[in-house]
UniProtKB/TrEMBL annotation:
Keyword Transferase: yes
Organism of this sequence: Paenibacillus psychroresistens
Organism classification: Bacteria, Bacillati, Bacillota, Bacilli, Bacillales
Domain N-acetyltransferase: 30-184
A molecular function (GO) term: acyltransferase activity, transferring groups other than amino-acyl groups
Pfam families the record matches: Acetyltransf_1 (PF00583)
InterPro entries: Acyl_CoA_acyltransferase, GNAT_dom
Protein name per its UniProtKB record: N-acetyltransferase
Amino acid sequence: MLDKSIPYYNVIMKRSAGIALPNYSLPEGYKFTWYTPNDEEKWAEIEAAVGEFENTKQGLAYFRTEYMPFLDELKRRLLFIQNKDGEEIGTITSWWNLTGEVRHPSIHWFAVKNEYQGLGLGKALVSECLNRLLLLEGDKDIYLHTQTWSYKAIGLYLKAGFEILEKESFGHYKNDYEKAMPILRSVLDV
């Protein structure tokens, strides 16, 4: 869940190539599944549930614009976690961003429904996503854009080998390091 009680600032993170990947497995009763056509509503539901969108309809509109043109890529890059009842309760995307003509592997849209947080599912999603990026993109630096509202995820990313970048960025993202760090220091051990 996003913590919208604190100010919003952009945070850029990078995981350098060549460092060992974390290896976290799913707890018993959960399984990974890859995107299949018509799973976009499930994705939008998860993202709306954690506060990334005001509602599922808004998330679905975003998904259709940004990701549907890449249907074949979605099938090998968009990961879900299902609970024992077959319900999708978490997601992450092993994607990329272009900075000019340079393609940067990146993590997009990481979320676990609130009632399933704290069970180790997020660690397993990030671990699987990093392994997928290594497979698809090679051993390269991996970037992500996040925000101060997602400080719990930032803590998880730090444990997975990411670092918060002071000046650098990628894609079209703004880096608010100077404004973000005092807030992050108040809620995380950074």
